[in-house]
Amino acid sequence: MTYIAKPKIVHGGLSRNGLGLTVRDYEGGMSTLCAGCGHDSVTAAIVQAFFELDIPPHRVAKMSGIGCSSKTPAYFLSASHGFNSVHGRMPSVATGAAAANRELYLLGVSGDGDSLSIGLGQFCHAVRRNLDMCYIIENNGVYGLTKGQFSASADVGSKAKKGEINQQPPIDAVQLAMALGGTFVARSFSGDKEQLVPLIKAAVKHEGFALVDVLSPCVTFNDHEDSTKSYAYTRQFFHRAVHLDYVPPAEEIKAAYDQGESMSIQLHDGSRIVLRKVSEDYNVQNRGAAIDYIRAHQRKGEVVTGLLYIDEGEPDMHGLNRTTATPLSDVDYGRLCPGSATLDKLQQRYR
């Protein structure tokens, strides 16, 4: 992919985080996407989230597959590790990275084509294994790199730029992740940075698989009238399930969140997500009720956004497999590969 470096000029007035870094230290190359693409807004939200979390860029491994969305890791965290895999195969690469070094923050960026078509099987198993990563789907309902064909997330009745009308039911990444046992499921809109930044921060800090499905309009092929993934449609019909903010453990809850209107969820690192409910009967810890809520608003033509479900009680992939607390990349080779004699002893158990 084309990489255009940004000039390394830092304004003296830029604020610094707890590591002494500015937001410029979390940026990447210049974007080569179409002007106005929602993916660039997601990039800005990722940059802001990692800056505010005080995470050193070199502690992050960013993964992607193929598509417009999978180009975006070039545009943020230039000092982090990165791997651009083949189409739909990012989850298996991320699984290997997690197995080798559990101390890295894993960030996967994919698209609706990359994750819900050719990569659907790998996506499902990453959720099932509760792989410890933040997985962002930049969802625009089309294949932008190959001229705007419908993707698996295109809604019934949605019209393509060339006039065709989609007749096939969509795969909803949010409902799919919940059905597979996902432990953190959220949806947002690329044009709502106020909601998206805290969602990404919470997803990064979640121990387990954290899905953030982001409606990110394609201005070239899917931003026209009669598209259900356009800016106009999303702004008109998106419905916030909860109002939220992410509060690091060193800070107090913001005063704007009054008692009786807020809900606090404790995360493994001691930090919290503070939620303000729209309705008293919505519960982010009830999987079945969350799916019913999403479907009820779907029937009204509304897109539910916010933190939709969270479960902090399930072990992640390392917990399920009882792996060593020491990253495998740091384990001595003799212990990691003890030789054929030890392998023979292990195999005797199965004979």
Summarize the helices and strands and which ones pair or pack.
Elements: H1 38-52, E1 60-64, H2 68-71, E2 81-84, H3 90-100, E3 105-111, H4 112-116, H5 120-128, E4 133-139, E5 142-143, E6 149-150, H6 173-179, E7 184-189, H7 193-205, E8 209-215, H8 231-237, E9 238-240, E10 242-247, E11 262-266, E12 272-277, H9 287-299, E13 303-310, H10 317-321, H11 333-336, H12 340-348
Parallel strand pairs: 1-2, 1-3, 3-4, 4-8, 7-8, 9-13
Antiparallel strand pairs: 5-6, 7-13, 10-12, 11-12
Helix pairs in contact: 1-7, 3-5
Number of strands: 13
* Helix percentage range: 25-40%
Distance between the termini: 50 Å
CATH fold type: Rossmann fold
Tally of separate helices? 12
Order of helices and strands: HEHEHEHHEEEHEHEHEEEEHEHHH
Give the strand line-up of the largest sheet.
Answer: 2-1-3-4-8-7-13-9
Give the amount of beta strand, in percent: 15-25%
Mean of pLDDT: 83
How would a textbook summarize the main sheet? 8 strands, mixed
- CATH first level: Alpha Beta
Question: Radius of gyration, rounded?
Answer: 21 Å
